[in-house]
Design a protein that fits this description.
The termini are far apart. α13 crosses α14. The longest helix has 28 residues. A two-stranded antiparallel ribbon has the order 1-2. By secondary structure, the chain is mostly helical. The chain is elongated, with a radius of gyration of 45 Å. It has 18 helices and 2 strands.
Length: 329
C-alpha cells in the first residue's frame, strides 16, 4: 500500500527518489549558473576517468599492446663515406700531395720539395728563404757508406776525417773498401790507425753480413724503408740514428725524419716555440705536415740551429757521419 503526501495539487510518492532527482535536475537546468557548474564537473569527472585508465594501461599494458620495436642503427659518417659522397673533394686532397718518390739527388726533386714545404708550412718557408737549398752528391756504395758511418760515430768532424783518411790508406783506396778487405785487417791494425777495438768489431760484423749474403749493395737499394731499418739495425754498432743518416745522405731518400737527432729536435722546438724538447711521438706529430719531404725539412732544422750558434757543428757532424760529402752551409 502506497501512501501519498498531498502537496498543492500534485501527488508525489514519499519513497521514490527518482521524482526528487528529476525535480533537482529540472531546477538546475532552469538555473544557468548551476547548469554550467554541472557541465564543468561532468567534464572533469570524465577527464579524470580517462587519465586513470591511461595510467593503468601504461603501468600494466595488455599483452597485445606490447608491440616490439627494433632499435634503430645509427650509421657513423667516416671520412671514407664523405669521400664517396663527394669524390671531387677526395680527388682534390690526393692531388695536393706530391706523389714523386724519387731520390733527392734526381734533377728537379729539391725544387719540388721546397715548393711543397713552402706551401704547407709558412714557418719553414722563412727558413727556406733564408738559407741555400740542400745539395746531394752521387751515391757511394752502401757498404762504404755504412763503414764510414761507423768510423764517424761519436767523434768530432776533424778527428773523424783524419781516421777515415788513414782507414782508406790502409785498405788501398775507397774503391778497395770491400768486405773481404775489411775482414783481412785485424783489430790491432785498425787500432793502430785510431779505430777503437769496439768499432773494429762493428766493422767486422758488417763485413761478415755482406760476405755471407745477409746484406748486399743491391738488396739494400731495393729494400723498403721498414725492412731496411730492421736489417741494418741488426748490424753491431748501427742504431736508428745511423740508419736515418744513411737513408738521408747516402740513399737520398726524401721522407726520413730522424726523431732521435738532437739537432733536428732542437730545431723543431725553436721553430714552433715548444716548451719542451720534443720526443719521437711529438716529432712525428709536428712534422707530419712535411710529408713526403721530411728529409728536407730536417735538413733545415740543422741550418736553423747552426745559425743560432749550436755547438759543435750539429749539421756538419750529421752530414759527415752520414757518409756523403755534403757540407754544412
Amino acid at each position: 500500500m502506497m501512501l501519498y503526501r498531498i502537496k498543492t495539487v500534485k501527488l508525489v510518492p514519499t519513497h521514490c527518489p527518482s521524482n526528487r532527482t528529476a525535480q533537482r535536475h529540472k531546477h538546475i537546468l532552469q538555473n544557468p549558473f548551476l547548469a554550467a557548474v554541472k557541465t564543468t564537473v561532468s567534464h572533469m569527472k570524465k577527464s579524470s576517468q580517462i587519465t586513470t585508465v591511461q595510467n593503468n594501461i601504461s603501468q600494466n599494458p595488455a599483452p597485445s599492446s606490447r608491440i616490439p620495436f627494433r632499435p634503430r642503427k645509427i650509421r657513423k659518417l667516416t671520412t671514407d663515406t664523405l669521400n664517396i659522397a663527394n669524390p671531387t673533394a677526395a680527388s682534390t686532397d690526393s692531388l695536393n700531395l706530391p706523389k714523386i718518390l724519387k731520390p733527392l739527388s734526381f734533377e728537379g726533386e729539391i725544387d719540388i720539395a721546397l715548393q711543397h714545404l713552402r706551401r704547407i708550412d709558412p714557418l719553414l718557408a722563412t727558413l727556406i728563404d733564408a738559407h741555400r737549398p740542400p745539395t746531394f752528391e752521387s751515391c757511394r756504395s752502401p757498404f762504404l757508406s755504412l763503414a764510414k758511418s761507423i768510423l764517424y760515430q761519436q767523434l768530432a768532424t776533424k778527428a773523424a776525417k783524419s781516421i777515415y783518411a788513414r782507414f782508406i790508406s790502409l785498405l788501398g783506396g775507397e774503391d778497395r773498401v770491400l768486405p773481404d778487405a775489411v775482414l783481412a785487417a785485424s783489430a790491432q791494425q785498425l787500432r793502430e790507425i785510431g779505430v777503437s777495438f769496439r768499432k773494429a768489431s762493428y766493422l767486422h760484423d758488417l763485413s761478415e753480413k755482406f760476405k755471407n749474403g745477409v746484406l748486399s749493395d743491391e738488396s739494400i737499394i731495393e729494400m723498403d724503408d721498414e725492412t731496411m731499418f730492421k736489417m741494418l739495425t741488426s748490424v753491431k754498432g748501427i742504431g736508428p740514428w745511423s740508419v736515418h743518416m744513411f737513408m738521408m745522405f747516402s740513399l737520398h731518400k726524401p721522407d726520413v725524419l730522424p726523431v732521435g737527432d738532437l739537432g733536428v729536435r732542437k730545431g723543431v722546438q725553436v721553430l714552433y716555440g715548444l716548451k719542451e724538447l720534443p720526443g719521437p711521438l711529438k716529432m712525428e706529430e709536428v712534422c707530419e705536415k712535411w710529408r713526403p719531404y721530411r728529409s728536407v725539412g730536417s735538413w733545415y732544422m740543422w741550418r736553423l740551429m747552426e745559425a743560432r750558434g749550436a755547438s759543435p757543428n750539429v749539421a756538419e757532424v750529421a752530414s759527415a757521419a752520414a757518409v756523403t760529402s755534403v757540407e754544412a752551409a
